[in-house]
Amino acid sequence: MPRVRLTRKVSFSSGHRFWNASLSSEENKKLYGNWASPYNHGHNFVLEVTASGPTNGKTGMVVNIKTIDDMLQKEIVSKFAQKSINDEVPGFADKVPCLENLLAYFRDQISDLPEKTVLEHLRLEETPTFFGEWSKDGDKVTLTRIYEFAASHRLQQDAVSHDENMRLYGKCNNPNGHGHNYVLEVTVGGKPDPVTGFVTDFEGLDRAVTERILDRYDHKHLNTDVPELVGKVPTSEVVVTEIFRALDGNVPGVLERVRLKETDRSVFEVVRGDL
Ligand SMILES: [Zn+2]
Ligand SMILES: [Zn+2]
């Protein structure tokens, strides 16, 4: 029986803080960096829940959406909405309410799915440029940061004729180039820190991406200004591969995926293991 995946989205607003009251200010600062504060801040969290199962021959459904909604309402929304996670959600009194720990908590809470239905994936968005994911495959949690850079390029192979370049690349072969506002998603996983629960050092990740990519790619001409692209055709396939190579081993944690959006309609990605 073929399995079908379905995804349901819920959202809730909650407060949380990164602060261990039994530690000094300096120790908290060391653990949580700029996030350290004894006071709450809040997010409109968006949770996407993906489950899979065989389609029932009679109902035509994998699982009734209402069953999923009722469970999400009972197990998650009612416990988190308009609450301070540190103070009001059972289990978080002495657990850091980071995306990694929240995803692990949701994974456990959503275990009670109807027969033959399996929880496959969770995606929890904290801000439009920061989300975490849990996948059943490998029971893995990853974090993704979203960045932007603007750059120009020209798609052209010097070794082939003008007509052949025009045939291959069309408008993208314009001799004076053209540009994109590229959206870059960098996904990192790894072993959660036993104290903070973090799989990566966030500020370190931002620093690495800024230094190794954004500072070198933003407002540049990819054919001439970026050494690893000189002499290559800077298609998004080539660019996303070079970005993965430049970041791999140079970010805190394990680089799991790099995704490059050239436009809203064109998305390219390299996943660890594919290179
Ligand atoms: Zn937060
Ligand atoms: Zn282009």
Describe the protein's architecture and organization.
This protein is α+β, with helices and mostly antiparallel strands and 275 residues long. The chain folds into 2 domains: 1-135, 2-Layer Sandwich (Tetrahydropterin Synthase, Chain A), CATH 3.30.479; 139-275, 2-Layer Sandwich (Tetrahydropterin Synthase, Chain A), CATH 3.30.479.10. Helices cover 29% and strands 33% of the residues. It has 8 helices and 10 strands. Strands 1, 2, 3, 4, 5, 6, 7, 8, 9 and 10 form a 10-stranded mixed sheet that branches. A hairpin with a 2-residue loop joins strand 4 and strand 5 (130-135). The chain is globular and about 65 Å long. The mean pLDDT is 95. It binds zinc ion (ZN) (2 copies). The site of one zinc ion has 4 residues, from strand 7. One zinc ion binds at residues 16, 41, 43, 126.
SSE layout:
Blueprint: E1 3-16, H1 25-32, E2 41-54, H2 65-80, E3 83-84, H3 85-88, H4 99-109, E4 118-127, E5 130-135, E6 140-153, H5 162-169, E7 178-189, H6 202-217, E8 220-221, H7 222-225, H8 236-247, E9 254-263, E10 266-271
Parallel strand pairs: 1-3, 6-8
Antiparallel strand pairs: 1-2, 2-4, 4-5, 5-6, 6-7, 7-9, 9-10
This protein binds zinc ion (ZN) (2 copies).
Residues 153, 172, 178, 180 line the site of one zinc ion.
Short description:
The chain contains 8 helices and 10 strands. The protein has 275 residues and is α+β, with helices and mostly antiparallel strands. The mean pLDDT is 95.
